[in-house]
Amino acid sequence: MRVKHLSQNFKPARTKSVLIAAALLVGVLAPTGAQAILATSEPAPSFSLVSGDNKKVSLDMLKGKVVVLFYATRDTVEVNEDLSRYLDALYAAQPQNIQNQIYRLLVVNAMEATAVTTWKEKLNETSTKLKVTIYGDWTGSMFAAYRMRDNDSNFVIIDKNGVVRFAASGKIANSRFEAIKKLLLELATGG
Q1: CB 80 within 8 A of CB 166
Q2: Stretch 61-73: mean pLDDT
Q3: CATH assignment at residue 29
Q4: What is the pTM of this model?
């Protein structure tokens, strides 16, 4: 899930113990150095995004998946590249049934695009080159609903029920990666 390369989608939480474990991780996962955007345990706001080649994705389409969302501008895609690489390796090490439970959603803030056709062409070229789907937030609706920080890297984890389990903007410290890994695997496996 390399942010710099806006990597591919992880392919398109179950019991009380999962919810309790996730809640306990909130303290462990509270952003350090990064600022919170959405509140943990808050329902994720709806969204509808379009890629450069007009593929659509919405929160409703992703119900039942753990969504790992990177939201950045062209100037901030490298801020959380270390986290992105770490999550790429984590994803690659998982069996297919776990990979199928996680969806990596990569979004570029495109609301200031003056030449939408050119932006879409560039997104499409980059998506094709990198074998990933990159979505644009063309209207700024996700930016507003998710309270994204402007000109920063934003990172959100949404559980299978559409509830925010982690949200931060800014550089996420490497010391947080293991806790993020633990949360993702618990949410994906329901254990």
Answers
A1: no
A2: 94
A3: 3.40.30.10
A4: 0.79
